Amino acid sequence: MKPETDALLQLALSAHRTGRRQQAETLYREALKQEPRNASANNLLGALLMELGRNRDALPYLRKAALHAPTYEAAQSNYGAVLYTLSKKGDERLAKDEAKVWAKKQPQNKIAGHWAAALGVVAKVGAAMPESLVRNTFDGFARDFDQKLAKLGYRGPEILAAALKEFVKPPLDILDAGCGTGLMASHLKPWARHLSGVDLSTAMIDQARARKLYDALEAGELVAYLQAHPQSFDLIAAADVFCYLGDLAPVLAASKAALRDGGLLAFTVEAAQAEDFTLGQSGRYAHGDAYLRAALAEAGLQLLSLVQDVARQEGGQAVPCFVVVAGKD
Ligand SMILES: C[S@@+](CC[C@H](N)C(=O)[O-])C[C@H]1O[C@@H](n2cnc3c(N)ncnc32)[C@H](O)[C@@H]1O
Question: Per CATH, is 144-327 categorized as 3.40.50.150?
Fold first, then answer.
């Protein structure tokens, strides 16, 4: 990158971060006049336009950044996000066409493949949302996560804690799996001898750390973390995390191995009408009742409770979820 483009980008970024959006837009555009193919400038201008709700305006910049820089995760993540938003807001055909071309041009790109499957233009659904997509999505979301989820009426932690109440015998060594900003911590802390948290997003972990309720926090992938901690926990709780995993077999097997005998695994998932698991346009998975029962049995975990509830709203509609508590004999 030319030094003068870099200087403009730094100024634009500083304006963007401090809420001077009009000034940021002008500076990004000036940077792009100097280097029209610069992936950072395209991505950041596209992200800014999305924040302003100008999704169609954002599209060409995000497309350019994502297609020119296949290893630039933030750009890949933002391009997928704009396609989802467009499809949600009535531009479904456009979003599908874009996703189809993207997946065709970058057949090895897992993020492209994930969005193409989510938008229904390729049949092959992956076993989980790609880690880089989860990380980038939540790194970008962390600062406003609690406020945004409050607006959606999010109550995953409350309903999971309520489902657990009759089964827990404290004090317990507990893992908050996919702890995010730590919304579950205040529910788990009264039962905890030791409370750990793990999450893919370091920005989410930073928010969780600020609560000062965890004894240990680690940035990492959940299944790998569980495999590295055999027989370590009396309770593993995962509120709104397994919807980023489609095939639950790996996480259930790893949870069983990480639990002590008599331990509990509790989680919420979005409820699918289908028996199996499905990938929605949002890029999140939903799981059917029959799938959950079979997957728990396959993993050798005993189902203690499975109830349907509502964990949040989306577009004014209640999103049904299953709240599951399972035990290891
Ligand atoms: C919707 S948030 C829920 C956070 C928290 N459990 C709560 O109820 O507020 C989902 C969290 O799961 C994390 N996550 C998703 N997949 C993960 C994985 N495979 N390993 C670790 N963390 C994951 C994300 O980074 C994100 O912070």
Answer: yes
Q: Is the CB of 175 under 6 A from ligand 1?
A: no
What global pTM score does this model have?
0.95
Closest CA to 208 of 238, 176, 239: 176
> In angstroms, rounded to a whole number, what is the distance separating the alpha carbons of residues 25 and 16?
8
Query: In the chain, which residues fall in CATH 3.40.50.150?
Result: 144-327
Q: Is the CB of 183 under 6 A from ligand 1?
A: yes
Burial label, 73 (beta-carbon count in 10 A; 0-12, 13-18, 19+): middle
Span(s) in the chain for CATH 1.25.40.10 = 3-124
Please tell me if the CB atom of residue 30 comes closer than 6 angstroms to any atom of ligand 1.
no
202-233: per-residue pLDDT in tens?
A: 999 999 999 999 999 999 999 999 999 999 99
Contact 85, 65 (CB under 8 A): no
Ligand 1 atom nearest the C-alpha of 220 is 21
Contacts of 216 (CB under 8 A, 6+ apart): 194, 195, 196, 197
Residue 296 half-sphere exposure toward CB, CA atoms < 13 A: 22
Q: In sequence order, what are the beta bridge partners of 322? A: 269, 308
- Tell me if 326 sits within 8 A of 301, measured CB to CB: yes
Nearest CA to ligand 1 atom 9: 183
**Two tokens at 134?**
């989860």
Does ligand 1 lie within 6 Å of residue 221's CB atom? yes
Whole-number Å distance, alpha carbon 104 to ligand 1 midpoint, is 29
pLDDT digits (tens, 9 = 90+) for 136-175: 999 999 999 999 999 999 999 999 999 999 999 999 999 9
CATH for 3-124 (3.40.640.10, 1.25.40.10, 1.20.1440.170, 2.40.128.90): 1.25.40.10
pLDDT for residue 156:
97
In this structure, are residues 112 and 81 in contact, taking their beta carbons and an 8 Å threshold?
no
Query: What is the number of alpha carbons within 13 Å of residue 51 lying toward its C-beta?
Result: 17
